[in-house]
Design brief:
The structure is a single chain. The chain is about 30% helix and about 20% strand. It is of the alpha/beta class and about 190 residues long. A hairpin with a 5-residue loop joins strand 1 and strand 2. Helix 1 crosses helix 2. The longest helix is centred in the N-terminal third of the chain and has 18 residues.
């Protein structure tokens, strides 16, 4: 699980008790400390002239850090390395997209909540067959004030272009996860385990 900007590893862990028991659930804390509290996978800058922009180099470093962490998990835990699922919220979703699309051999499923694709931090493989096993559950709030729904809507055509399976759904909420959204993603995930 990859949390959003300004949060920490405990934020999404509240989902764990409602997810299938057979899962090994690990929630990561982003590497960059924010003041006065919380963490980020990469800096987001707010500038009057440039607007909001992301530190793509930090994002790539975090992308690679999480990919390496997936490799080292097998030293500590026993799990199916062919069935790794990333669940991200907001900035954690942006990073989840980047990890899965840059390192498709490390991931099978992605649950992308309230985020978008940042193609600046993705290295696309030359052989599209490297993506054929991937499956995404993407959802977004239709009235999200933090990340506009229009940004999230760019994911389906991008995933289509790579022939990646996905489900995209919007819910009438802001920047968060509606109860119906959670129930749907949980059912989607259960199907991936069977």
């Amino acid at each position: 699980m990859l949390h959003g900007y300004g949060s920490d590893e405990n934020d999404l862990f509240s989902f764990a008790s409602e997810l299938p028991k057979e899962l090994l659930i690990i929630s990561l804390q982003a590497p960059y400390k924010l003041q006065p509290y919380g963490y980020a996978w990469y800096a987001i800058h707010f500038d009057n002239e440039q607007g909001k922009w992301s530190d793509d180099e930090q994002a790539k470093q975090s992308r690679d850090l999480v990919a390496h962490f997936i490799d080292t998990l097998s030293e500590t835990f026993s799990f199916d390395k062919e069935n790794v699922t990333l669940l991200g919220f907001s900035q954690g979703t942006i990073l989840s997209y980047a990890i899965a699309l840059t390192y498709p051999e490390k991931v099978k499923n992605v649950i992308a909540l309230s985020g978008y694709l940042n193609t600046n931090i993705i290295t696309i493989k030359k052989d599209p067959s490297e993506y054929q096993h991937l499956d995404f559950y993407c959802s977004h709030g239709s009235v999200d004030q933090v990340i506009p729904a229009d940004w999230a809507r760019q994911a389906p055509p991008f995933l289509d272009s790579l022939k990646i399976k996905y489900q995209y759904k919007e819910f009438p909420v802001g920047h968060g996860v509606a109860p119906q959204n959670f129930y749907e993603l949980r059912e989607w995930l259960k199907q991936k385990l069977s």
